[in-house]
Amino acid sequence: MSYAQSRQAAQSTEAAQDTASSGHPAYASGPAVTLADVVRRCRWIAADLQASDFALCLAGPSSESGRLVACFDSDYPGTMSAARLLGGGIGEHLMRHVRQSTAPCWWTEDAAEAAFASLAWASRIEPLAQSGRGIAFPVYTARGQAGLFIFGGPDLTPNAKALHEVHTRCFALFEAVARINPARAGKLPSMSRREVECLKLTSRGYTSEEIAKLLKLSVHTTNQYLTQTTQKLNAVNRMHAVAKALRLGLID
Questions:
Q1: 3-state DSSP call for residue 138?
Q2: What tens digit of pLDDT does each residue of 32-47 get?
Q3: Integer CA distances (angstroms), 224 to 107, 115, 144, in order
Q4: Pairing verdict, β 105-107 and 123-124
Q5: Residue 172: which H helix or E strand, with range?
Q6: Dist CA 92 CA 183 (whole Å)
Q7: What does pTM read for this prediction?
Q8: Mind listing the domains of the chain with CATH numbers?
Q9: pLDDT per residue over 52-103, tens digit each?
Q10: d(CA 25, CA 167)
Q11: Where are the strands (E) in 13-60, listed by range?
């Protein structure tokens, strides 16, 4: 399915949602208007695919470093499932794929390969160590925003006949995400050099007083930087901010 075809189908899907013309729960309650609505509908898709994990990951502009950023996943409001799905280096393969193709891609390291091979218009990614089973659906908006809906788990079983419909539902959900929070589409939080430095030192176990001394700042200013990074990363505390920054590649 081409981008134009998928986008047109997504618009038709949204119309179906508005009129509640289908008996499927994914179309039965009107258009998604909050991120929680989108996550709930994504959970229904995961159930159809027999996937235990799912995630929507955003891809930044091609001029930025190649990394996928988790928007939400099956642990919503956390993002631990995304880390599992992107582990073992599969994230780099997926980032390259979303830049090159609009078709779904899949990977598996077990005996299910024959079943996946029947997905005629989906491409295969070479399995990596501990990558398990997975399938990813590239999605885009007319504004150039790009992302991937990723589903995985030991019982994942895509249905070749339903693959077009699943991809269409993913496009419709991505359009909803772009409307709900357009500023998030593919963009990493904007951080100053000092904010990153403070966060990196925090990840290495330094206290505010020690960071202030190392960077020749006041303790008050150091705490301000750390508070700002926590807010920008939508974290509950400093250590949560460190974990998110590590996952996003903002610090190492």
A1: strand
A2: 668 888 899 999 999 9
A3: 44, 54, 34
A4: parallel
A5: helix 163-180
A6: 24
A7: 0.63
A8: 3-184 (3.30.450.80), 193-248 (1.10.10.10)
A9: 999 998 886 543 445 788 888 888 766 677 877 877 678 888 888 888 888 8
A10: 16
A11: 53-59
